[in-house]
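Q: A reviewer asked whether we had any structural model of the full assembly, not just the individual parts. We don't, so I'm hoping you can provide one. Inputs are below.
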Amino acid sequence: MVTAAPRIDPSTLPSSTRERFAFLYTIVCFIAIWSGINFLFGLVNLGIPNESAGRLAVGVITMATALAISAALYLIHPLLRARAFGRATVLDLTNPASDRISNLSKALGIQRPLVLVDDDIQHIDALAFGLPKRRRILLGRGMLLLLSKRPSEFDLRIAHELAHIRNRDVDFGYIARAMTQATKLVLLFCFLVWLFYFGMWTWRGWNNFSVFGDSFGTFIRGYVPAAGWYLGYFATTFFWILIFWGP
Amino acid sequence: MPQENDLRLDLARALAAEVAPEELPFFEELVKGGRAGATTRKDSELGFGGEAALVGVASVFLYQISETILAFIWEQAQALLGDVAKSAAKDLRKEIEAKVGKWIKNRFRGSPPIEIPADKRQALIRTISKDAKHAGIGEVEIKRLTTVLNEALVVKASG
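A: Here is a predicted structure for the entire assembly that you could use as a starting point for your response.
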């Protein structure tokens, strides 16, 4: 008796998305803690007598701040992504593409996302984004032309985007993107603090300026050696690369 | 010349209706956009990518060859206009223009505005076919285009 080979559903095959995400999450936390311990300790006086504990506390606060920024960036990503292709409008339900997308969503077992279309006929990219239960797909207007020219290619592109939604790549992808951006912000902040200290602080002789209380004195005592150790030429170059050339 | 541009656009639209009717709802936008697949947008994360662009879209190509076809028709008409007086040539040109407009409006039914020798017609169609292949137009569309041009540029027997 001949039995048919089992059909493979590519969307259920194992991928390393979650492992990569866990790796990224760990790196982001380490960078934030490291930055807090080495560059921000002294700027923030938590009143913890033990220096090691104080450093760690500042590191943890920096990490929490980086994660909070990441969460905020993820939550607002639908507002930014909706404009990723420029001006976009909701796809008319009477458009043949709408039915097609509904059928493909049903076939993949997901709720039909809201579909937006831009106004560039030359543009045939498609993009999935949105928060859970509020998923969206943004289409270049050229996708509608593609549907009339080569329907199977249209289906392929839409199925690709729907698979991102089904696999929750949209969440992982945009949280990862937000975490990268948050890390860049933390590093930029550290760099500006460094610039402020070496540029303005010593130039103006503000070392003796005590209007902000003792916290700046502590900052000087803690920060100068940290800056000396970690922010040499190589570290500065590394920062610039991460901030302006990073993902 | 705005009138010539209108004629060119009308001719391209009429050809699109025969060669790639599925593109008609997007015809104006495509022609206005200039070159198919010319988007300069950057690909997005979680997007599919637009690298394949709109290869095989015929409208823009049809708009481009419309100029060639009209120029070809005028060239043939020059032979007729060459020996007539200036004022008469102006009238004749207007008359041919009107005939071209009508010919396009009727979707190439009836004879072309002027009689075109078979060898010249074939040479034109060969050049257009070659350009179409070069532009990435599909075989089916090229076949339709050559058929339409072959039928459109032949003088039909009256009655």
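A: Points you may want to mention in the reply: The beta strands of chain A are 88-90, 114-118, 126-131, 134-139. Chain A has a mean pLDDT of 80.
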